[in-house]
């Protein structure tokens, strides 16, 4: 007779049941027990069974409940086991790092450099290309209005500047806009009086501007539509938070105080919240009604026509309106506005005119700026640095896994699952990556400010903390992804290791696939380093070419003094006389060598004109002619050399004869092979009197660094001309700038303001792409070179340590110390050489992407490639020297005995 309990136990041992079978057996056991109990009380067996079933209830419900309880129990057990396993893995990894602190520090530092570079670049790109302006309401629905007009050559001109009347037309005729506003960010508005006056950021905005942002004033209120009416708005202003703190100490009693902005005295009515600067990347110190600032600058003509385009328009489309619908609506409104404007637009051009609502951020709009282009490039460069760091760390982890082969084999032999082993190794790499992310944030804290200043010095970063939620989230994601990438290869190879071979060989030697992978990672590092170093070399040479370029004048010793009468403009005769008095005052200031007057300013202000030569057909095919009206000693002050004839004198300014000096290229193109002195040219129109050429000056680069604007004409200032002052200093212009400003400011009438700046500052925007490219490519290239060298050293050192037996055998068979050292160095150099070849091929293929950003150097410049290859080979040799020295000191007796 079978015993039920023993039978059930036997079944459990021989054939483990499924969950469903266990539940059915459990239910059946309880029914049998209840049936026996009822039968013992006197019920017939069948009646006892039926009563037991009735009392038990619906078995399906019971089965479902028991299954759910079992799932919950198993899930809790699994979670507990997983947490326990993770805790064990974490503790094991930390103990391993304590045993090898040098290895852990090297990996963390390497990843910290790569992640830190990317975190910093993410903060910059996020600010100028991703993050919407602070406090902007409904960023997805709000955009900047761009206008497209047909050109005479059949093309199209894109513009985001519109006139005030155009803004009113678009606002009135559009049906798909929920709100719109016009504004103008003036970063050179003069704020304050006397010696305390400074150029600051001021926004001229329509009253609707505030409705586009979700803000409330810290103190006071914003200006309203009743204060922003044509022709002349109210004299009220809202201060920026930063200016309120710096100029007024955050005094809440600032309301009602007066502040001079431009030529008008404004009453302070409110303070904007901290971090608010509208759509501007710069800090804004004050906001004023657009009708107030426009009337001071242009008079009542700013709202009476369509040709004075100086404003920008923000608009928010209605919810549910598509982008296509709002563009069509704006286009129709724009076409109506052009059809009704005076002077009239050609009827055939009206249907070709279009308008669109593009993203608020310039960098994401249809016409991104140079800053966005440079930032994108540098983001790619930072990503390459991180890839090099990942390859480096993956190689170090592979080498470490090789050293731990016997340990891993023992764990597998003792029953550890390969999945559990993979999880352990990934835990170690992820922990190292997270520590590297923390180190990256530390590096970004110190390097981020410098990088921000050098890359975008004109951006206000005060409202954007270096570390915010987005930055921390990006850094954490980058660290986790890096940990996964760097840990996959070692974990995969460890999981595929041969148990018997590993127990026999231990950590002495590795398999060929593993060695090939480590070598491949070294090649990748070298190739990526070549890309960065070639880019650095090309940009450095471009920057050197730009700086060595002969501009035709000497900007390093020049100051520019700009006069701002702040709306109180005297008649031309008085302005000319006042300019002469300022000129005499400047000549008497210590440190000033020469001073002169000019209309044009290099890379900032120029004027093109038409030129006619008697007896010649039109000169239009020769290019553009630039005219500059200058003082009598202009050429001596700027250092522009007179090659033939003479310069301009005081007698030329006062005399009746019309004279001019032309540039060398002008003379060469207009009179090829002839003498320009004494020739007749007519300026502006062929009906004008002759202007006699009295001199030929050296070519200058004025509006660009190319040759297209070298055809210059210099004519003397007459008695009614005022101008900008050029000052040539005897020494460093930075030491003369402030004394010069103070000396000239004392002479300014009323609220007039003098701004003195170095002429080199006008060159900064032109040189900026090459300076940034050279600086950042060199910085990241050097960083990549260091990381690659450390990785090469680490892998070769691990390899030499694992090949102690081999080196001992070689030494026992007669290999010399120098031969062993040469063997190790040659292996490192060979790997690097392969990387150089592959990286050089990639650099040659991708050179066309950089070609447009270079100056005076080919993207395939052989000198750069040769220098980069030489540097990398030298670094590879140096990185191999210490492991080679250790290999050369191998003792054959000790090595063989240890084996």
How does this model look, in words?
With 899 residues, the protein is of the alpha+beta class. The protein folds into four domains: 17-91, no CATH class; 142-360, no CATH class; 370-547 and 766-898, no CATH class; 555-759, no CATH class. It contains 25 helices and 23 strands. Strands 1, 2, 3, 4, 5, 6, 7, 8, 9, 10 and 11 form an eleven-stranded mixed beta sheet that branches. Strands 14, 15, 16, 17, 18, 19, 20 and 21 form an eight-stranded mixed beta sheet that branches. The protein has a four-stranded antiparallel beta sheet with strand order 13-22-12-23, sandwiched between helices. A hairpin with a 2-residue loop joins strand 7 (258-261) and strand 8 (264-271). Helix 4 (59-99) crosses helix 5. The radius of gyration is 39 Å and the shape is globular.
What structural keywords apply?
single chain, globular, eleven-stranded mixed sheet, 23 strands, 899 residues, eight-stranded mixed sheet
Question: SSE layout and pairings?
Answer:
Blueprint: H1 4-14, H2 19-40, H3 45-56, H4 59-99, H5 101-130, E1 142-150, E2 156-159, H6 164-173, E3 177-191, E4 198-205, E5 219-220, E6 236-239, H7 241-248, E7 258-261, E8 264-271, E9 286-289, H8 290-298, E10 312-317, H9 323-340, E11 354-358, H10 370-403, H11 405-413, H12 418-455, H13 469-495, H14 499-505, H15 512-548, E12 558-564, H16 572-587, E13 592-598, E14 608-609, E15 611-612, E16 625-630, H17 634-638, E17 642-645, H18 650-654, E18 659-663, H19 664-670, E19 680-683, E20 691-697, E21 712-716, E22 724-729, H20 733-745, E23 753-758, H21 760-802, H22 804-812, H23 817-851, H24 862-888, H25 892-898
Parallel strand pairs: 4-9, 6-8, 16-21, 18-20
Antiparallel strand pairs: 1-2, 1-10, 1-11, 3-4, 3-10, 5-8, 6-9, 7-8, 12-22, 12-23, 13-22, 14-16, 15-19, 17-20, 18-21, 19-20
Helix pairs in contact: 2-3, 2-4, 4-5, 4-12, 5-10, 5-12, 5-13, 6-9, 10-13, 10-15, 10-21, 11-14, 12-13, 15-21, 15-23, 15-24, 21-24, 22-25, 23-24
């Amino acid at each position: 007779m079978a015993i039920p309990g023993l039978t059930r136990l036997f079944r459990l041992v021989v054939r483990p049941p499924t969950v469903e079978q266990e539940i059915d057996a459990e239910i059946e056991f309880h029914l049998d027990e209840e049936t026996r109990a009822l039968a013992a009380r006197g019920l017939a067996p069948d009646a006892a069974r039926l009563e037991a079933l009735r009392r038990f209830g619906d078995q399906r419900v019971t089965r479902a409940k028991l299954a759910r309880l079992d799932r919950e129990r198993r899930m809790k057990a699994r979670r507990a086991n997983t947490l326990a396993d993770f805790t064990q893995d974490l503790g094991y990894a930390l103990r391993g790092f304590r045993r090898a602190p040098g290895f852990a520090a090297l990996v963390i530092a390497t990843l910290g450099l790569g992640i830190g570079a990317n975190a910093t670049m993410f903060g910059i790109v996020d600010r100028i290309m991703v993050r919407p302006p602070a406090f902007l309401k409904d960023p997805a629905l709000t955009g900047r209005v761009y206008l497209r007009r047909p050109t005479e050559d059949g093309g199209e001109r894109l513009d985001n500047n519109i006139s005030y009347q155009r803004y009113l037309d678009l606002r009135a005729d559009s049906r798909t806009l929920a709100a719109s506003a016009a504004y103008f960010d003036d970063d050179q508005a003069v704020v304050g009086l006397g010696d305390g006056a400074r150029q600051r950021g001021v926004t001229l905005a329509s009253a609707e501007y505030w409705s586009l942002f979700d803000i409330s004033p810290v103190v006071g209120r914003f200006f309203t539509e009743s204060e922003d009416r044509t022709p002349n708005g109210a004299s009220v202003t809202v201060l920026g938070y930063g200016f309120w703190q710096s100029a007024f100490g955050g005094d809440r009693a600032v309301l009602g105080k007066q502040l001079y902005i431009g030529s008008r005295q404004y009453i302070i009515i409110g303070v904007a919240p901290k971090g608010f600067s509208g759509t501007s990347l710069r800090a804004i110190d004050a906001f004023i009604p657009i009708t107030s600032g426009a009337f001071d600058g242009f008079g009542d003509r700013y709202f009476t026509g369509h040709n004075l385009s100086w404003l920008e328009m923000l608009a928010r489309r209605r919810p549910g309106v598509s982008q296509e619908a709002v563009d069509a609506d704006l286009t129709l409104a724009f076409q109506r506005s052009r059809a009704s404007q005076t002077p009239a637009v050609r009827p055939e051009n009206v249907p070709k005119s279009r308008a669109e609502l593009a993203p608020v951020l310039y960098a994401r709009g249809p016409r991104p700026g140079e800053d966005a282009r440079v930032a994108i490039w540098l983001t790619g460069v930072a990503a390459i640095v991180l890839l090099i760091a990942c390859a480096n760390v993956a190689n170090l982890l592979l080498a470490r896994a090789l050293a731990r082969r016997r340990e891993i084999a023992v764990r597998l032999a003792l029953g550890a699952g390969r999945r559990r082993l993979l999880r352990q190794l990934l835990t170690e790499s992820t922990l190292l990556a997270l520590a590297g992310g923390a180190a990256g944030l530390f590096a970004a804290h110190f390097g981020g400010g410098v990088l921000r200043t050098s890359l975008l010095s004109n951006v206000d970063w005060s409202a954007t903390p270096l570390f915010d939620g987005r930055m921390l989230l990006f850094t954490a994601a980058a660290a986790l992804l890096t940990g996964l990438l760097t840990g996959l290869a070692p974990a995969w190879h460890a999981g595929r290791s041969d148990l018997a071979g590993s127990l026999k060989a231990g950590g002495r030697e590795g398999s060929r696939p593993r060695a090939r992978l480590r070598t491949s990672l070294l090649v990748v590092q070298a190739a990526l380093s070549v890309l960065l170093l070639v880019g650095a070399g090309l940009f450095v040479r471009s920057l050197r070419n730009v700086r060595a370029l002969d501009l035709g004048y000497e900007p390093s010793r020049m100051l520019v003094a700009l006069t701002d009468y702040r709306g109180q403009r005297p008649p031309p005769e008085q302005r000319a006389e006042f300019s002469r008095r300022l000129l005499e005052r400047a000549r008497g200031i210590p440190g000033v060598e020469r001073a002169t007057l000019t209309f044009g300013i290099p890379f900032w202000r120029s004027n093109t004109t038409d030129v006619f030569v008697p007896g010649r057909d039109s000169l239009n095919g020769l290019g553009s002619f630039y005219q500059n009206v200058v003082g009598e000693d202009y050429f001596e002050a700027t250092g522009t050399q007179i090659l033939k004839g003479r310069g301009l004198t005081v007698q030329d300014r006062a005399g009746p004869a019309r004279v001019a000096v032309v540039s060398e290229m002008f003379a060469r193109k207009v009179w090829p092979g002839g003498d320009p002195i004494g020739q007749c040219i007519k300026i502006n129109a062929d009906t004008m009197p002759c202007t006699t050429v009295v001199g030929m000056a050296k070519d200058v680069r004025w509006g660009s660094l190319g040759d297209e604007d070298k055809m210059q004409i210099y004519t003397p200032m007459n008695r009614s001309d005022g101008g900008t002052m050029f000052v040539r200093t005897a020494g460093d212009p930075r030491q003369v700038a402030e004394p010069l400003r103070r000396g000239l400011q004392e002479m300014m009438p009323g609220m007039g303001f003098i701004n003195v700046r170095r002429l080199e500052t006008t060159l900064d925007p032109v040189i900026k792409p090459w300076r940034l490219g050279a600086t950042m490519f060199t910085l990241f290239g050097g960083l990549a070179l260091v990381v690659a060298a450390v990785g090469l050293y680490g892998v070769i050192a691990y390899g030499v340590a694992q090949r102690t037996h081999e080196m001992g055998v070689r030494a026992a068979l007669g290999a010399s110390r120098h031969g062993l050292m040469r063997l190790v160095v040659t292996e490192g150099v060979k790997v690097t050489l392969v990387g150089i070849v592959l990286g050089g091929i990639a650099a040659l293929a991708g050179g066309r992407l950089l070609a447009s950003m270079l100056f005076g150097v080919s993207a395939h410049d052989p000198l750069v490639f040769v220098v980069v290859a030489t540097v990398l080979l030298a670094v590879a040799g140096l990185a191999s020297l210490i492991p080679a020295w250790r290999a050369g000191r191998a003792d054959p007796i000790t090595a063989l005995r240890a084996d």
